[in-house]
Amino acid sequence: MNIPVAARSLGWLLDAASDAMLICDAGGRIVLANQALATLFGHAHDALAGQALEVLLPEGTRAAHARLRDAYMGRPRPRPMGGGLALEARRADGSVFPVEVSLSPLRDPDGAALVLATIHDISERKRAEHALQESEARMRAIFDTAVDAIITIDQRGRMERLNPAAERMFGWREAEVAGRNVSLLMPEPHRARHDGYLDHYLRTGEQRVIGQGREVQGLRRDGSVFPMELAVGEMWIGGARMFTGLVRDISARKAAEDEARRLLQELTAANEELTSFAYVVSHDLKAPLRGIGSLADWIATDHADKFDDEGREHMRLLINRVHRMGALIDGILQYSRVGRVRETLAAVDLDRLLAEVIDLLAPAPGVTLHVATGMPVVMAEPTRIRQVFHNLISNALKHMDKPAGEARIRVTWADEGEHWRFAVTDNGPGIDPRHFERIFQLFQTLAPRDRVESTGVGLALVKKIVEMYHGTVSVASAPGAGATFSFTLPKLAPTHGATLR
């Protein structure tokens, strides 16, 4: 190809340039292309000269480019190519990438028109712009859909942005408050103090709200004041200091806290009344009951010869019911104290404790009572755990229906990872599954009270104590197949001095 003299004289300059550059003639033929351009487009350095400029363009834009080139040659001047349009170029392998092109007209000594084109690959910039757009879209979605109110202000306290949640919370539209002082959203005396606080922070950097959350009050458009949680962050945008406030309406939480305080006060008062009631029951009821019991025993003993069989049976029932009433009062007192009185936990050796419980119960000679060895040491209040085992074993003894020599009761334990499981199993009459929930309720018994001496408090007390220790109680039984009462206790760390309430 015959290369114009002007183009040849610029060849050294193009080859020295790091930017991709080429010179083409008025017909759109490439006269010179430097190594940077050949590398960018994936062509051999000497393979481009003489080719139509459109070889560097995607096929879909080649025809339009030829028309634009002719228009440019009619009025050549230095300018960017495309007039703000998105331009793309095509590599030798067919891949397309975004570019920016600068055009400069040239003429050779013979007056022939030439064009110098400088080409920049802007792929990285486009990717960065796309990532920024995606990030802005995500932030916009967060801003628009956030449950909490978001408000941005400048360093003079003037509001710039309110998200939809802020508009709903305060009753103002963003357009209505833009440029107004954020103290508009504050009740007195906070409104009057706000500008002074902001000015103090800008002068000294001393923080009161910025960078940390606090509870304050907000003012709605209708004049109503509400409690809110406010966190303020500081940022710099384009050299300007901005503040972003994140606001949460905590009216519901405050109402719940007030209700909780009210219920706690009522519970405290109820506990105090229960304590007083327990004192009355213990002293004012048991004293006359003891008198009735003593009198009944005296009549039954000293005047036994004056009663017929029916009279003696009536006296027996009277005495038993007096004793049951005393036991019921004791059971109610025990039940009322569980969870109400602060108790100190201690390491309890269950082998020793069960030996004491069995010795106290003194099972009849015909009852076989087996206790598994190697019982663990648990962290508990000793009296409470003694009550649990005492009530379960006593319950099995009271309801046993097998003759001497056939009655069997077993106390076992198992390690179940995070907790211990204990069980008391008997071969007594068993329980219908439909009564499983009922038997753990206060004052509930299945057998007639005059046949089996029971207050109906024992299993309810067991359940309350075990659940106080965050354990569970269950029963497995069927009529005629005996029963197994089991309960769990967490493996608490053996730290003396701990308390449970």
UniProtKB/TrEMBL annotation:
Listed EC numbers: 2.7.13.3
Organism encoding this protein: [Empedobacter] haloabium
Keywords for this protein: Kinase, Membrane, Phosphoprotein, Transferase
Domain Histidine kinase: 280-493
Boundaries of every PAS domain copy: 6-75, 135-205
Pfam families: HATPase_c, HisKA, PAS
Catalytic function, reaction form: ATP + protein L-histidine = ADP + protein N-phospho-L-histidine
InterPro entries named in the record: BphY/WalK/GraS-like, HATPase_C_sf, HATPase_dom, His_kinase_dom, HisK_dim/P_dom, HisK_dim/P_sf, PAC, PAS
SMART domains tied to this protein: HATPase_c, HisKA, PAC, PAS
Domain PAC: residue ranges: 83-134, 212-262
Protein's name in the database: histidine kinase
